[in-house]
Write a structure and sequence with these properties.
With 200 residues, the protein is an all-beta fold. It contains no helices and 20 strands. It has a six-stranded antiparallel sheet with strand order 2-3-4-11-6-9, with no helix packed on it. A five-stranded antiparallel sheet has the order 1-17-14-19-12, with no helix packed on it. Strands 16-15-18-13-20 form a five-stranded antiparallel sheet, with no helix packed on it. A hairpin with an 8-residue loop joins β3 and β4.
Length: 200
């Protein structure tokens, strides 16, 4: 298990100058042929997303004004804060920002033939079960994971482990992405169940 603080992550500028990316994790590391990948994107202007054939994407708006995604005949969707939205990476998608506003979002990408991601926002203590990997990003409040205290803009990622993420104060929100392998993929012979167990 590894921890991160997005304020301290290296930044990669986009070639078109319309934004920047902070890669949180990639499995396997440092490869274009990833199984799954998580990153933070800061978008400064409207424009077209890069295409990722064979990849499913889940995008969650974290900060800034509303962002409208135009997927042509496939969909037309306005991102709302902390509400994940899934689409195919090969789909041509144009992002339209609210006038004069930047946005920051979390992107989870999974290689469709190998694995899938379920992304949600939790507001109470929970334990991960069945996932073959995952990551969390604190949106608000104070949370404990392992021996670490995590606050806003901090998080963690892992593979093949179960964890309890504990809310330490009365209120807080944390974004959680669970990764499960597709049963047909040869790396696993048993279908993995992706679940989030919330404790009262």
């Amino acid at each position: 298990m590894e921890y991160f603080d997005i304020r301290k992550m290296p930044v990669s500028l986009w070639k078109n100058g319309a934004g920047e990316t902070r890669e949180l994790c990639c499995f396997p590391p440092a490869t274009r042929d990833f199984n799954w990948r998580a990153s933070i994107a800061s978008i400064a202007g409207s424009g077209e997303f890069s295409a990722f054939p064979g990849v499913d994407r889940v995008i969650t708006l974290l900060e800034g004004g509303e962002v409208t995604l135009d997927g042509g005949n496939a969909f037309h969707h306005t991102l709302k804060r902390f509400q994940p939205f899934r689409f195919s990476g090969e789909q041509t998608v144009r992002a339209q920002l609210s006038e004069g506003q930047m946005s920051m979002d979390l992107n989870i990408m999974t290689r469709r033939e190998r694995c899938q991601a379920k992304v949600r926002v939790a507001d109470r203590t929970f334990t991960t079960f069945g996932a073959r990997g995952g990551m969390v990003l604190v949106l608000s409040g104070a949370w404990q994971l392992g021996d670490k205290l995590l606050t806003a803009d901090q998080g963690s990622y892992w593979q093949d482990e179960h964890h309890t993420i504990r809310l330490l104060k009365d209120e807080g929100k944390i974004l959680y992405s669970a990764i499960s392998w597709n049963p047909a993929w040869p790396l696993t012979a048993v279908s993995q169940v992706d679940d989030l167990s919330l404790a009262g």
